[in-house]
């Protein structure tokens, strides 16, 4: 569009010069040619501007639609693998389980980063409080580390786990979704480590899964 606008500006100036030349007897013939040529260029430039504007509007609509789809989870999946990891740990008075992990190559909008990400790693977790005290457990605020040194934070909006207070004998369970910064192929994610914090009164408990390998 910028080219057409520039061309329109030059053509308009030429048109003005041509009009001035029409008033000079010696240059009237040249003025007629200049005005005619400038008029044609002005018309062509206006048409070009309208076409360019139409294409720009169409592109904007496509971008807006794509962004809306990614925010609503309506983008197309390019591959997904679900792994049965069956990780279990009962240290620190908690029964902690991660049953499945799913890696999917699908564009999602990370609400934490406010940008689109190429895929996700989702863990299904379950935590039971076996102590006599009320615990405060925050797996949604935990950190997941995976291949290529990616250190990931959970997306609270995309996840369905509700963490926080756990009364004695209570269980929290659900999925935690981690948008991935890098993902060319689903098979690229071969392992992960996940850690999170829990508070038993004033005592900080750090839970760590260690490295969990993803194998079919």
TrEMBL record:
Keyword field: Membrane, Signal, Transmembrane, Transmembrane helix
Transmembrane residue ranges: 6-24, 31-53
Name of the featured protein: DUF4352 domain-containing protein
Organism of provenance: Listeria newyorkensis
